[in-house]
Amino acid sequence: MPSNLKFCDSSESYELSKYVLFGVPFDATVSFRPGEKLAPNRIRESSYNIESYSLFHNVNTKDAGVYDLGDISEYHDPEEMLEEVYGIVDQIISDKKFPIMIGGEHSISTGAVKKLKGKVLFIDAHTDYRDSYMGEKYSHASVARRISEIIGKENILSVGIRSVSPEEIKDGTQNFISSYEVRANYEAALKKIKEFADGPVYFSIDFDGFDPSYAPGVGTPEPFGIDPYIVFDIMKIIRKKITGLDIVEISPPYDNGNTTMLAARIIQEVIASVESGKVGDK
Ligand code: MN
Ligand code: MN
What we know:
Blueprint: E1 19-24, H1 39-47, E2 53-54, E3 59-60, E4 66-71, H2 78-94, E5 98-103, H3 109-116, E6 119-123, H4 143-151, E7 156-161, H5 166-171, E8 175-178, H6 179-184, H7 186-196, E9 201-206, H8 230-238, E10 242-248, H9 258-278
Parallel strand pairs: 1-4, 1-5, 5-10, 6-7, 6-9, 7-8, 9-10
Antiparallel strand pairs: 2-3
Helix pairs in contact: 1-9, 2-3, 3-4, 8-9
The chain binds manganese (II) ion (2 copies).
One manganese (II) ion binds next to loops.
């Protein structure tokens, strides 16, 4: 793990920490705009521009017990990358800590889900349900399909969808809430998420799920996206059930700085939300 740069709230030793971050600088299967492997350190840099105190949750994330392990090695073979991700998440979970993975592209999530099981809630513009893409079964465009083989597609819900291929429709994708549905009836969308989240949930945020005006620096931008504020409302629903978090598909070469800033802030607010969940609902 060569990087010396640590997420801003990483003030604890590993032993005393509750939240363990690590970066996965992997972009070998990206189809359009590469650069995702640069995101972990750009997100860490952005994290130094935010206050540790969360006004929304009344929590100081400096006191929450955050530790940043740094980045895993750079791989070209997705299966080798997934092995290392699995091993690290396995260690974090057996030490009874909360894993936060900073991508890298979306294919990295499979390594965490293989360990955590439970249900998976995605924010994404894409269903990612292709059996393979450009000959690669572990492509970022196939992550939901690979995860469905581990936990079953009925245990996946994707929010913000607005891009799906005829092949995926034919195969029958996981359940999803489109970005149009989120906009048309926000409360109904939250209700569906609440009904889905009836047990442990892993939360995977593909930043292209957000509208490109909020998150321009992504590998495959899609117009007509959702508002990042939904993360607060989702966390209200899952903060006592969430098993882990990942932040994926950010491509710093296409960013104006706002995307990595949003990522750093979301990591901080998810930690603050889980912490506030521990002291009871407000
Ligand atoms: Mn995705
Ligand atoms: Mn996507």
